[in-house]
Structures are given as structure tokens and as C-alpha cells.
Amino acid sequence: MTTIVDRRLNPGDKSLPNRQRFLRRGKELIQKAVRDAVSKKNIPEILDGGAISIPKDGIDEPHIFRGPSGIRRGILPGNKEYVEGDILPRPEGGGGGDGGGSGSGAGKGESEDPFRFVLTREEFLKYFFEDLELPDLVTKELAEMHQEGFHRAGYTLTGSPGNLALNRTMRNAMARRLALHRPKSEAIKSLEIEMELTDDEERVAEIMYEIERLRSKQRRVPYLDPIDVRYRRLEEEFRPITRAVVFFLLDVSGSMSEHLKDLAKRFFMLYYVFLTTRYPHVEVVFIRHTDRAKEVDEETFFRDPESGGTEVSTALALMGEIIKERYPISEYNIYVAEASDGDNPERDGEKAILLLAELLPLVQYFAYLEVAEDERDFSHVSYLWKDYEDFCKSGVSAHAKKLAMRKVHEQTQIFPVFADLFKKKAQVTS
Amino acid sequence: MNMTQEGKLLFESAEWDFDTLRRIQEACEAIALPEFGLSVYPNQLEVVTTEQMLDAYASTGLPLFYKHWSFGKHFLYHDRLYRTGRKGLAYEMVINSSPCISYLMEENTATMQTLVIGHAAYGHNHFFKNNYLFKEWTDAEGILDYLEYAKGFIAQCEDLYGEREVERLLDAAHALMSHGVFRYKGKRRLDLRKEEKRAILRAQEAERNYNDLWEHTVPAAAAKSTTELQEQQRRSLLGLPEENILYFLEKKSPKLKVWQREILRIVRHVAQYFYPQSQTKIMNEGCATYVHYGIMERLHQRGQISDGNFQEFLISHTNVITQLPFNHEYFSGWNPYALGFAMMQDIERIVSGKDPLTGLPCTDEERQEHREWFPDIAEKGDVMGILRDAWANYRDESFISQFLSPRLMRNFRMFYLEDDPERTTGILVRKIHNEYGYRDIRHQFSTLHNVGHAIPSIEIVDVDLMGDRRLELQHKVVNGTYLYKNDLDRVLKHLADLWGYQVRLTEVDEGNGSRQHTSDPNNPPVF
């Protein structure tokens, strides 16, 4: 009458549908929380998914209960000092006088904490990109950089002797020999011996006839026939490169304020996260430049103040070197995002364009983001913008379409501009 | 039975397998039934993983339940607490069903499994089967089938009418769940098996003539007759006043469709199923804790549990029955395990006249107090008989009022606080644990466990079917405590959606006038 059941083997994740319903329910709050979380995190941390907090009252379930007004009575344990008639101070925030078995007091206290829970990486990115309306931005050109190679792919009837598939050839030959009953040499041999030992003329004639028959069949059914021959077939292979590297070029000259750098950071982050959804492995190279360029770590990249003049070409040159040294284009997809206020001296422009023309064939995509304090700053065209624009229009490089340029002056524009950048790309390829 | 001989250890290490569990269960049963005289539903012990335990938490312990986002929320909440080590999982979870399902977590040691089996499979199980509230309001035999039906029905509705539609309806129903139970006098005992058949028949019938049944007859017929009837008669025709809001909506709401009524009914039944549990927390846990303690003690005496394992048990047991004082950093109210267990042991002491721990006879002073306060049971001898009677016939409120002894009030150092903002500048200590305070403390403690105290009493009092069809509700304000407005407004919004017309709740406080809250249905109407 007592049964013992092992439930451990039952399919798990019984709560998954409820989790999905909850996430859908709290979508707006979760999206906001994801956005907030992103602004606080380092770039690689974003990818871990991780805990987010959403305000509890957005997802609480209302029910009817009594408010804090009126007379409250309670029986509490642990009185060691008070006697009848004593007056205790009211505890701050209330709740202390209540405790006689009703749970509503405790329930109320909880609601002030935010509701924290853990999102998986996939969920996190889903909300992140849903927000951007970017889920379908998978452009072909972005992904399909191929590396050529050869791999074995079955057998073929023709080929060079070097690719002869000996085993397969011999197997075919044997099959054919068996199927067509090719006489074995041993059979002929034993007949010849028998012939020598026999005196019977009639028998000798019989054997000679037989030997002749077998020999002729042996000739008709050769040991190895051209139709048996097979060659190893090699196929050209197109394998997508699964590694990517992204270069972030940031202008940190004196004219770049914290606000501008923040805009750049947000943009870079989106760029990075987007790439990680496309490639399993993404490396990041941070290059900051004034009139000199330096490769730095992430912390320094965004935090350390530096000032000085501007020479974009130095960053481009350094990037070229790094690509040559560490990121062969046969193994890496190379992406670039550059942010600057465009305040590049005229004399440097020419140099930068030359470098750009060299670099563009190597990269998949080069996004240039011009940042400004407010819209009025865009009323005149910056030198760098003009140089890049002229370069694109001139048509000197077939790769010029890889260069995309946008202007941004406030945070809220980052998402749309980002989406727009990639959308535009999609139209070009389709 | 030869597996569970006296003097032979049931297990030696923390490890266990299914044979061990079987031996433990048989040994527990050999004590619980013949020695303690318990009467239980057949047991079903289920070994589960932590994740499955969290699942059970999230869906209020029920093994199968319909899908709703709030359960996902609860799962995430508990999951995080558990993973960050801020909260351990309960050792046990048990379902009031027949067979009575108890969950055993795979991480538990053999000693803990013994505790859990004693606690859940015999303690809670006996209480479920014998307590009058459970007998009256729940149907242990039918609940699992009914839940299966409910889950299927709601999933079907999601397919037919869309997940969002169903979710909105469930949100509204959940908001009113605390007011979806019958509290007094059984209308009739639930028979959930019949309930299921009835639902199917009703759905079939409804499909045949949906319009006839709901669109026209109900409001139209009622409206016609109200012209001649006095207000009183009109109310009684609608069955007003009615405290079960979900019931009233299910029967009388003019706008709901058949499937929506059925879902309200399901939510209402689930609420009713849990209703006795909220009223018997102290007794239920007290009974289960007393039983597991008794069983463990007997197993130890019989040499079936080693000293070391008994020590391990005592540590867990002591943790479970700890009552923190009110000024402790982690104080979070009364611990029903502590209070319940203390009261059960106290009854044992009063009935037997001996200290349950030491076995020594009580002092003359104590016996005098017992006789004075509990003349019916003092030193009557049959401890288990009297406990079984208490477990069967009381709920927390009446149990405290009958059995809370001066000695326990002293031990817990109970005091009676009153916060009346109009009369005192702080919180007044009205009574403490002395002979002037015992009766008041006990009375007040009992009142606090009255169902009407935890859940405000709200009734539907009138509907003006001739006019704007506004639904009138009333809250009787006690001690000047009004409802928490923020939540109330949101609940009323849900209510208005379900009703389809305006709703108005009046909070009536004798002497201090009344407050009114109104809410209109969403525009366009959700349902």
C-alpha cells in the first residue's frame, strides 16, 4: 500500500513554460533592465547573461489586504524587559507591531526589494537585440568569408595516378573476377600436371582443350580491367571562418569629452555583442589615438584621460600592423569601428585615406561613427567626414562600400543608428 | 516485517537506497499506526531532485498545475535564493491527496529521510485525513484527477482562445482568489470527480446552445422580475450578500463566456482546496513535528537508529523548532513548527503529568496549574487519544483558545502589544506573561488566528440590474484599518473586467463614515 517512486528520471524543466510566460510578461521591464545592465558592464561581461533586477511592483500580483492604518494588535515572543503599561517606540517603516500570525506584514516589506533573477546568455541577447529590432540583420556578406581547402569526398573514375585508390580498385577487380568466374591460374596449373602424368591420348586432348578454354577466358576476363580503376576524389572546401576580430579605434584627443566617449562606448558595445551572436569567437583590439596611437586594454581604453592633437592615420597604421602580425585574413574576419569627433587636421587626411584604401580590402566592415555634443555641431562638415565621404564617392576603391558612416549626438540615437548601419548593408547585398 | 526488528539498525551511514527507504517506511509505520493509533491515507513517497523540489515550490506544491507566469516568477525567486545559499530548501513537501504524496529530496541523508517520512507521510498525512476542516472542504481522493483535468482544460483554452486571453483571466481570478472561498458552513462537500464530469457536460451543453444559456436568460430574466420585486427580494434572488466573489461572478456575471466561467471555477476550487491549510498551520505542523519526534525517539529506543544518527536528527529538529525573539535581527513572526510542537508536548505533559523530556513527574505547583486550567484533560492518561481528538476537531484559532497554557506563555515570554495611533505615542504593552495577562494574551492570540483577521471580510451586497448594473461591494472596517489602496484599486479593476460593468466597494466603519472606491472595466472590455 505504500509505494516508493523515483521521480528523478522524469523529464526536467517542468517550469520552463512558466518561465517563458514570466519573461514575456515582464518583457518591457526586462528589456529596460538589460539595457541598464549593459551600460554598467564591461564588454565581455555582457555575454555571460547573468542577474538582472526588475522593480517588483511591475510584476507583483495584487490582492486585497489591510493597510497600515487603524489600531493594530499583536502577540510577540521573547519579551524579557517590558511590563504592562510600557510604551515601545514605533519601529521605523512599521511592521514591528504586527506579528500575530498574519503574513501581510512580512509580505509588504519584501515588495521594496527589486526582483532579481538570472537570465541565460541567449535570453539576455534576445532582449538586447529585440530592443534594437535587429533580429533579422543577418547579412550574407557579413558571414561568408571562406577559407579554401581540399577534403576527400568519395571516388571518381578519372584522376591522376597519384590519386589512385588502390584498395578500392583491387576490390572492384576482385568482385568482377568473382562475378564473371575468371578461372584461377592454379586450376590451369593442376590440369597441366595432370596432362603430363596422363598417357591416355584422349584425356590429353580433353585437357588441352580445357586448358585452352580456361586460358582464353582468363584473357577475356583480365585480372585488372580499366573499369576497375578508381581515383580518390578531392573536393574544394568552403568553410566559414569562425573567428573574428574587431578593432575599436577611439579618438581620445582633447576635444573628445566624456559624453562623446560614452556615446562611442555604447556603440562599440553593440557592435561587439552583435558580432558575438554571429561568431563563436570574437577577439577585441582596442586602439586609442591622439596624434599617436596605442593599443590598450579595455579599462584604459574607456577610462584613462589623455589629451593632445589628433591624427587618425596613426591609428589606421597601427591597425594595419596588428593585422599583419596577429590576424591573418585567411583566419579572421576583421571588423572595424571607429569613433571620433572628426576633428582631424587636413594634412593627416590624405595619409589616412591612403591607409584606408589599403585596409578596406582586408576587412569585412568599417563603421565610422562621428560623435558630437549636440546637433549644431554637425552644421559644418568635419574634415575627417569630408575625407571619408570623398573617398567613397570617388569610386577609386571597389571596397568603398564597406565603409559606413553615421553621426550621433545623443544616447538615444545609438540604437537606431546601429540598426540603420546594418540594415543598409543588408540592402546592398540583396 | 523481519527487516525492521528491534535492535537492528535500519541504516548505518548517510547513504540510502530504495531498500533502505522501504525499511525506514515500514519501521515508521510499525510505530505510527499501532503505537500512536494514527490513521492515514495510503502513502506514496517520491524521490525528487532539487530542481523538482523548486518546481513544486513554484506551483504551490501541487504535482501538476496549469501554466501561468506567476509560477515562473516564484520559481525564479526561490531558485535564486537557493542558489545564492540564502535559503535552504524545505526538507519535505507533502500533498493532501489520496494516496498522500510526500517528496523526498535526493540530497537528504538516511536520517533526514526518516525524519521526513515520519513528519510528512505519517504526521501530515494523519492530519489531512482526520481534521474536520480538511474533511469538510477538500477531496483528497479527487484532487489529482481534478488538477489533471484543470491543467488540460486550461491548456485547451489557451489553444482555442489564445494564451493572452487566458492569462488575463487567470490574473484577474488570482487577484480575487482569497475571496473565492466559502468560509462558513459547507454548502456541500466537494466531490471533485463529479465536478470534472459536470464540467464536461456543461461544456457540451453550452456548445449546443451557447447564446440561449448565457447571453439572454440570465440578465434578461432577472431584469424582468426586478421590476416587481422589492430590493430585499432582488438581493435574495441573486443570493446576496455573497462573500465568495469568484462564485458570484461565475454564476451571475452577465458577460463571461462559458469557458471563462469554468476557469473561474477551477481557480475557486483550488483556493478552496488550500483554505483549510491556512487555518491549521500551527496544528498541522505541530502534529507532524510531534509525530516525527515521537517516531524518531521510539526508533532510537528500539535500537533501530544509532546514537550518532539520532544526534544528527536532534540538530535538524532543534533548528526546525527554533522560535526567535521579537527583537532578533532575523525575527519573521511566529514559527508554526515551534509553537505547534510546543503545544503538542505541553498537552502530553498535562495529560500524563510527566515531563516529556525527562520523564519526571511534574511538581505539585505545575499539577495545580494544570488542574486549574485544563480540568478536562489533566492527568487523564491517554495522551495520544486526546491529541488525536484535538487534531481532528480544532483549527488554530480554537486550538489556541483551548490549549495554550500559562506555562507556554511564560516559556515563549509572550506579550500583548497594541498600537493605537490616536491614543498612544508608541506601542503599548497591554499584557505580559503573568496571571493578569494569561487570559487576555490567549484570547487575543486566538483572535489573530481567526480567518477573518488575516483576510478582510468583503461581501457583494447588491447589483442594480435595472440601472447601470453596477456591482456593489462592502468591506466592514475593523479597528479603523482600511484596505491598502494601491492593491485594492488594481484588484477592483480586475473585478470590473470580470463583471463587465462598474464596480464599487464601500468601506464601512461604524462611527467614522465610509470610503468608496469605484472601478470601470477596461475600455474596450477585456472579457
Describe, in plain words, how this protein is organized in 3D.
The complex is a heterodimer of chains A (430) and B (527). In chain A, 42% of the residues lie in helices and 20% in strands. Chain A is built from 15 helices and 13 strands. In chain A, the strands form three sheets. Chain A has a six-stranded mixed β-sheet, sandwiched between helices. A two-stranded antiparallel ribbon of chain A has the order 2-5. Chain A has a two-stranded antiparallel ribbon with strand order 6-7. Chain B is α/β, with parallel strands linked by helices. Chain B has three domains: 2-131, no CATH class; 151-278, no CATH class; 321-453, no CATH class. In chain B, 54% of the residues lie in helices and 10% in strands. Chain B has 22 helices and nine strands. In chain B, strand 7, helix 22 (485-499) and strand 8 form a beta-alpha-beta unit. The longest helix of chain B has 22 residues, at 258-279. The radius of gyration of chain B is 26 Å and the shape is globular. Chain B starts with 17 loop residues before the first helix and ends in an 8-residue tail after the last strand. Strand 4 (87-88) of chain A pairs antiparallel with strand 5 of chain B, so a sheet runs across the interface.
Shape call of chain B: globular
Number of strands of chain B: 9
How many separate domains of chain A? 3
Alpha carbon gyration radius of chain B: 26 Å
Q: Order of strands across the biggest sheet of chain B?
A: 6-7-8-9
Q: Count the DSSP helices of chain B.
A: 22
Strand order of the largest sheet of chain A: 10-9-8-11-12-13
Question: Could you describe the largest sheet of chain B, including whether it forms a barrel?
Answer: 4 strands, mixed
Number of domains of chain B: 3
> How far do the termini of chain A sit from each other?
69 Å
* Full CATH superfamily name of the largest domain in chain A: von Willebrand factor, type A domain
Q: Which residue ranges of chain B are poorly predicted, with pLDDT under 50 across at least 5 consecutive positions? A: 210-226
Report helical residue fraction of chain B.
40-55%
Mean pLDDT of chain B: 85
Average pLDDT rating of chain A: 77
> What is the CATH third-level topology name of the largest domain in chain A?
Rossmann fold
Through-space gap between termini of chain B:
60 Å
CATH first level of the largest domain in chain A: which class?
Answer: Alpha Beta
InterPro entries (chain B): Spore_V_R, SpoVR-like_C, SpoVR_N, Ycgb-like
Protein name (chain B): SpoVR family protein
Domain SpoVR-like C-terminal (chain B): 456-510
Pfam families (chain B): SpoVR, SpoVR_C
